[in-house]
Amino acid sequence: MNELISELNSRGVNFIRGVDISMLSKKENRGYYVAILLGIVLRPDYIIRISKENIADHSEFGVKEHLALRNTEVHFA
User: Fold this and answer.
1) Which residues contact 34 (CB under 8 A, 6 or more apart)?
2) Residue 12 pLDDT more than 90?
3) Contact criterion met (CB below 8 Å) for 21 and 32
4) Region 1-22 average pLDDT
5) How many whole angstroms separate alpha carbon 63 and alpha carbon 13?
6) Which H/E stretch holds residue 70?
7) Model pLDDT for residues 34-71, shown as the tens digit of each residue
8) pTM of the entire structure?
9) What is the Cα–Cα distance from 41 to 12, expressed in whole angstroms?
10) Closest residue by Cα to residue 12 from 57, 69, 72, 60
């Protein structure tokens, strides 16, 4: 687990949390009882600007997402 956390941090993930989703229906939780949330921190001025302008601007998010996901293949079972 520490290796996974270290790798995610090296790719720009700022926080990792486990969340209990056992209270969701089987359809919603797909048989899983815990979800893993990954967070990437965005600059406050970017968030304020986007909320005031009410437009879609994914530039900062896209850059940080790209950095976090580069050279990463995700396989879902």
Assistant:
1) 18, 19, 20, 21, 22
2) no
3) yes
4) 86
5) 12
6) none
7) 998 888 888 888 888 878 877 666 666 666 666 666 65
8) 0.51
9) 9
10) 69
